[in-house]
Amino acid sequence: MKIGIIGTGYVGLTTALTFAKLGFKVYGNDKDKEKIEKLKNGICPIYEPGLDELLKEMLETNQIEFLEDIVQTIKLSDVIFICVGTPTNPDGSPDLSQVEEVSRIIAENLNGYKLIVEKSTVPVQTAQWIKRTIKLYSHRDIEFDVASNPEFLREGSALKDAFNPDRIVIGVESERAKEILLKLYEKINAPKIIVDINTAEIIKHASNAFLAMKISFINMVADLCEKTGADIKKVAEGMGYDKRIGREFLNAGIGYGGSCFPKDVRAFYYIGSSYGLDFSLLLAVENINNSRIDRIIEKLKKALWNLNNKKIAIWGLSFKPNTDDIREAPSIKVVNRLLKENATISAYDPKAMNNFKKLFPNIMYGNDKYEVLKNANALLILTEWDEFKNVDFGKMRELMRTPIIVDGRNIFECEEVRKYNFEYYPMGRSCIV
Ligand code: UGA
To answer: I need a surface site. Which of 163, 214, 275, 301 has the fewest CB within 10 A?
Structure first.
């Protein structure tokens, strides 16, 4: 079975390399010619642990080939995964024009039975639109199936998640499509949930919206903890022991970012509303998340009085650790707010600085975490990279002008920081010196 992957972003590239490693011949295609050129030469366009090495290995063994031509990709493949972007329109609805375009091109180039699988996160009923589009535009009476097989991998642990998923969701409407997808995932040991296509599409959107809701819920409680002197970490731990709740995704802080949660919460709200349903719960999720930025700025002001001409060192720019991705990263909003307040910024991130420099070429950047602390009035932690967790507090204290740490990710313990006479402002817990 030959597999075509259209769209080699995070999901597409990881999926392509996973299937290649599982022993299938894979053709990867993207409309970005520069990206295809890089991939052909074994250059991974994104930072993701293990991806670079796997790309080189699969190119060497010829398990994967990257093609500029989408038509060739379609013609050579038995199963085609649509992994193109589904960005947000200004009104919050998902923009499905790329999915439509790919469906049309598939229709015009069907040269035998194909299974067309949507992997991109799409609104319920999108597969029905893909099916209709293929029927409308295909010239000959060639059989095909459409399926939904949503992806649940997380950036920063994409390959690990792809090879060890919690579940594989297979949304199909024919036995033939089901058998093909089961064959593709035969070697992956995970529960395989076989459902109708609409159900599969909703499972994906509902999962992301639910996880975002968990984060906003704990952030809402974090605000109450701060007002009352309680400790959000311990509240989350106490709640998390309940198997029905679970400890994961109850980390309070600067809020969620990235290319998925903000977009998917908005899209799911839009989808519910478009059927006349009250999905306003998701508006609250979004509002709470947005207000995290106010909280962090308030904390800085509480510590520094006003921010004019104050030097703020920032640790962490990516939306989460182990990625260079800054899409919808809280750091972007925070830096914009700080610049408005006329603060001076010196930032450091292990992987995301090049991407950040494209947006903010005029702030200062450091070569390491200590360099940015020189003469800083405060340190602001925005991403919980491992290298920020083990630090030399004595050295930090010497470098900084005033000993203030505002921690948007709660990575330190109060007693530890207090030993070095830092004023420490975490999220949802109090640490008065
Ligand atoms: C998310 C989902 O977790 C994946 O299952 C899904 O496949 C993916 O979206 C997608 O739809 O493509 P991702 O956005 O890569 O994955 O990363 P997460 O680990 O989910 O983190 C998302 C954001 O939530 C990050 O900004 C993170 O810092 C924040 N977060 C996460 C918290 O603020 N608190 C938590 O407890 C957990």
So the answer is: 275
> Which residue has its alpha carbon closest to ligand 1 atom 1?
154
Strands 114-118 and 79-82 turn out to be parallel
pLDDT at 433 over 60: no
Task: Tell me: pLDDT of 239 over 60.
Answer: yes
> 260 CB less than 6 Å from ligand 1?
yes
Using DSSP's 3-state secondary structure scheme, residue 303 falls into helix
Closest C-alpha to ligand 1, atom 23: 256
Residue-wise DSSP of 164-211:
S-S-EEEE-SSHHHHHHHHHHTTTS-S-EEEE-HHHHHHHHHHHHHHH
Residue 372 has phi, psi (to 5 degrees) of: -70, -15
Each domain of the chain, given as residue ranges in start order, spans 2-195, 228-433
In CATH, 2-195 is 3.40.50.150? no
Residues recorded for the chain: 433
Ligand 1 centroid distance, CA of 90 (Å): 23
Whether residue 258 has its Cβ less than 6 Å from ligand 1: yes
155 lines ligand 1 (CB under 6 A): yes
Cα(154) to centroid(ligand 1), Å: 6
The model's pLDDT over 383-417, given as tens digits with 9 standing for 90+, comes to: 999 999 999 999 999 999 999 999 999 999 999 99
261 alpha carbon – ligand 1 mean position (Å): 7
Atom of ligand 1 minimally distant from the CA of 330: 26
Residues with active-site annotation = 260
Per-residue pLDDT band at 139 (split at 50, 70, 90)? confident
For residue range 81-124, list pLDDT tens digits in order.
999 999 989 888 889 999 999 999 999 999 999 999 999 899 99
**The pLDDT of residue 363:** 97
State the pLDDT at residue 92: 84
Q: Which fold has domain 228-433?
A: Rossmann fold (3.40.50)
Q: How far is the CA of 25 from the centre of ligand 1 (A)?
A: 30
Contact 196, 392 (CB under 8 A): no
CB 65 within 8 A of CB 26: yes
The two domains 2-195 and 228-433 share their CATH topology (first three levels equal): yes
Average pLDDT, the chain: 96
